[in-house]
Specification:
Elements (H helix, E strand, L loop, with lengths): L12 E13 L3 E8 L2 E8 L6 H8 L6 E10 L8 E12 L17 H6 L1 H4 L3 H23 L3 E2 L5 E2 L11 E4 L2 E5 L4 H9 L4 E9 L12 E10 L4 H31 L12 E3 H12 L13 H15 L3 E5 L20 E6 L2 E8 L4 H10 L7 H4 L9 E7 H9 L4 H4 L12
Parallel strand pairs: 3-5, 6-10, 12-13
Antiparallel strand pairs: 1-2, 1-4, 2-3, 4-5, 7-9, 8-9, 10-11, 11-16, 13-14, 14-15, 15-16
Length: 436
């Protein structure tokens, strides 16, 4: 059983396994702290008892970070600071032994270079904060999935090896595929839409995406996990925004119920469960307010998209104007967006960005589903044969639809106030890192 389950089995014989977190070998007693992914527990061995002779010898030769399998009785001991319980062992088996000094102290990362931590990620991930971070990430994804399942969505698994470069055709990784070239998928966008043209109605996918961007910022990676959603029979892109807002509210509320207190304790962060609907503003109105409120001025030529600083200020604006951590930004010009995003008669994109805590977490939109229109859009972007297979999806009828994608690693970074996605990815991949 796990350590967190022990409190339900006082005065019973139990078996538990984990890492040796600490050893205190005193004159008359030995204390060993055992750690697993759910917590820590103290093992107490009285040296004076003859029956413990073999156990004492094992602990005398034990090293911290070795792993143990322990059998014994779990006792309710209020005086023990660690959870008010202790194990009185009858058998201890060393299942693996730490043979050397750790490359760094993972319990105090304040003085450890991040690259060193990433080089020895298997040690870095042993820290309490990192274990909790990935438990929280997993829980957040679980409840986003659960919300969509409850709404009748089907989870799909699309290929990551493509015969043609996806989306814009740029910033893709080329790989050798037998006697020809293939490409790693930038996103499952085309295949999500193919599913809707096939009549699936509502689909989502949680999977890796690959971007050959030589970008070394705190929020970019060359491989990341994307949570992609697409659904049909929408009236307009407001339906897409509503679904995303409701999904995030549900997942944050549920994650807060499970880990809210632990997040406060370990990360000093609070999960703010948002109210819906999320506020929305036109891009032009945002720049107008940023200038009026915060004297943020940029050249008009830059106002066709959100700058990084504008995103950051949007958090402040959303809090002051709407008392919200979230802000939908709408009315982007189509020139900055993918050809498959629908436009209105004035060329305004029928889509949005979602800003959370000053960082963009989503680009979403109603998609262009009309064959003639999407062919025209692709031609304007200089796309031809590379996307012909995709354009064919719309030849024989496709319902109005839209969707969005959320980067799981970036979402985790913002939720827990982690400095970089390098830390929120299990194993980071960037321009200068392809190992371990």
């Amino acid at each position: 059983m796990t350590i967190s389950e022990l409190k339900n089995h006082f005065d019973e014989e139990i078996e538990v396994s984990g890492f040796v977190d600490e050893i205190r070998n005193l004159k008359w007693v030995q204390f060993v702290v055992l750690r697993d992914q759910t917590g820590k527990v103290q093992i107490t061995i009285e040296k004076s008892e003859e029956k413990n002779k073999e156990l004492v010898e094992i602990i005398d030769n034990l090293t911290v970070e070795s792993t143990l399998r322990v059998e014994g009785k779990i006792m309710n001991s209020p005086s023990v600071k660690l959870g008010g319980m202790e194990i009185i062992p009858t058998k201890i088996e060393v299942t693996s032994r730490n043979e050397g000094e750790l490359p760094f102290n993972y319990k105090d990362l304040s003085t450890v270079n991040l690259d060193t931590r990433l080089d020895y990620r298997y040690i870095d991930l042993r820290s309490e904060a990192n274990v909790l971070m990935f438990q929280v990430q997993s829980t957040m994804v679980r409840y986003m999935r659960e919300y969509l399942y409850n709404e009748g969505f089907t989870e799909i698994h699309s290929p990551k090896l493509l015969g043609a470069a996806s989306e814009s055709g740029s910033e893709v990784f080329e790989v050798k595929y037998f006697d020809r070239k293939a490409y790693l998928a930038q996103s499952p966008q085309f295949y999500k839409q193919m599913a809707l043209a096939s009549g699936f109605g509502k689909v989502f996918e949680v999977a890796p995406c690959f971007r050959a961007e030589n970008s070394n910022t705190s929020r970019h990676a060359t491989e990341f996990t994307s949570f992609d959603v697409e659904f049909a029979y929408i009236k307009d892109f407001n339906d897409v925004m509503d679904l995303e807002a409701n999904m995030l509210k549900y997942a944050l509320e549920k994650t807060n119920e499970v880990y809210g207190e632990r997040i406060k304790e370990v990360f000093n962060q609070e999960i703010i469960v948002p109210k819906t609907p999320f506020p929305k503003m036109r891009l032009a109105d945002i720049y107008k307010e940023l200038e009026e409120r915060y004297d943020y001025k940029i050249d008009d030529s830059e106002k066709n998209d959100l700058t990084t600083e504008a995103e950051r200020l949007c958090f402040k604006l959303a809090k002051e104007k709407f008392d919200s951590e979230f802000l939908f930004v709408i009315d982007f010009p189509a020139e900055k967006r993918a050809f498959y995003h629908m436009r209105d008669e004035n060329g305004i994109l029928q889509g949005y960005d979602l800003i959370w805590r000053g960082v963009e977490i989503t680009t979403g939109a109603q998609r262009e589903h009309r064959y003639q229109e999407i062919c025209k859009n692709a031609k304007e972007k200089g796309l031809g044969e590379d996307v012909k297979f995709y354009l064919d999806f719309f030849k024989h009828g496709c319902p109005p639809h839209g969707g969005f994608a959320i980067g799981v690693d970036r979402l985790t970074m913002l939720l827990l106030d982690i400095p970089s996605v390098k830390e929120t990815q299990f194993l980071f991949r960037g321009p200068n890192r392809i190992a371990p």
